[in-house]
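Priority: medium. Attachment 1 of 2:
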């Protein structure tokens, strides 16, 4: 395990006024070469912030008040992709290198691995989400999705209905599970009782649906990587809406809906974070302070949105309260 103390000085953490006056940002360096891919803050205020150090085969944790970080090695060959905080308060990791789901105890840092079944092959594990019953669902870009019961350790893998592509995955307030297929350019709803996935076609062909998130009404927001759009699917009416991101060549990577139902997206094309207000249908832009920030995931807690800059070895938080 490696400890690193980061002074919140001019070069290591930066607090500035962002584009919108009510939003402030703070930036934290993580160990060089970590290449933080995904990030997951604990729900409590000032609680730890977990991140996948994909470049170093570790799970990292940042303590925002001190700026201190710690990285927990996950095992030989580890290449962690996604991380979320589960109902048990622990970080859960989808590790493509280990081809396993990994749980790290938030107090002892003990690592528990749940390998995929023999014969699964390389699944290119991506992201995970918990349903209403506490079952962990996950995706693999090679063409699978799966479920893990933390209570028993039982793990099952399903073939995706249209093969390669399952990427981002999220739960609704009701506990329903949806995933996005990047290679398949669609989203899908998983029947959590049977495990069957039903595909749902966005109106824009070849849009490259990359990640999904739910708002408070259970509507599914989709980041469309190839079209440069932010779209929304309403399961109640089975209707779609889409909004093109500003700029000449947007690349919509990640999406997250905060507790005020504002929608945050990362735009690789503009090297910026955007906040979208569905009521006014307007975007606000928050340009990244360094080139090639490459923000690959967005998660938050009350009054905060956290992002990993995989291209600069930093984590950044946007605050508005």
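Attachment 2 of 2:
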């Amino acid at each position: 395990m490696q400890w690193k103390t980061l002074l919140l000085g001019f070069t290591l953490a930066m607090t500035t006024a962002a584009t919108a006056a009510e939003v402030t940002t703070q930036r934290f360096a993580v160990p060089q070469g970590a290449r933080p891919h995904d990030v997951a803050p604990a729900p409590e205020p000032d609680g730890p912030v977990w991140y996948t150090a994909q470049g170093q085969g570790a799970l990292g944790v940042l303590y925002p008040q001190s700026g201190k970080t710690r990285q927990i090695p996950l095992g030989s060959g580890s290449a962690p992709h996604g991380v979320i905080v589960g109902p048990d308060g622990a970080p859960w990791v989808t590790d493509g290198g280990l081809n396993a789901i990994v749980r790290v105890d938030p107090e002892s840092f003990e690592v528990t691995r749940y390998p995929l079944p023999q014969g699964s092959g390389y699944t290119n594990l991506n992201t995970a989400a918990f349903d209403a019953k506490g079952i962990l669902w996950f995706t693999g870009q090679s063409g699978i999705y799966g479920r893990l019961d933390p209570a028993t350790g039982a793990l099952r893998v399903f073939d995706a209905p249209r093969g390669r592509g399952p990427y981002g995955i999220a739960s609704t307030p009701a506990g329903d599970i949806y995933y996005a297929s990047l290679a398949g350019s669609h989203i899908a709803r998983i029947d959590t009782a049977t495990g069957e996935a039903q595909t749902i076609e966005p109106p824009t062909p070849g849009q490259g649906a990359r990640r999904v998130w739910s708002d408070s009404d259970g509507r599914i927001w989709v980041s469309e990587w190839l079209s440069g759009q932010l779209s929304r699917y309403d399961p109640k009416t089975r209707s779609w809406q889409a909004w093109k991101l500003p700029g000449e060549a947007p690349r919509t990577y990640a999406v997250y809906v905060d507790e005020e139902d504002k929608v945050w997206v990362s735009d690789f094309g503009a090297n910026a974070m955007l906040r979208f207000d569905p009521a006014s249908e307007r975007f606000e832009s928050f340009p990244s302070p360094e080139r090639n920030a490459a923000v690959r995931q967005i998660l938050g807690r009350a009054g905060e949105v956290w992002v990993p800059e995989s291209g600069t070895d930093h984590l950044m938080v946007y605050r508005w309260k």
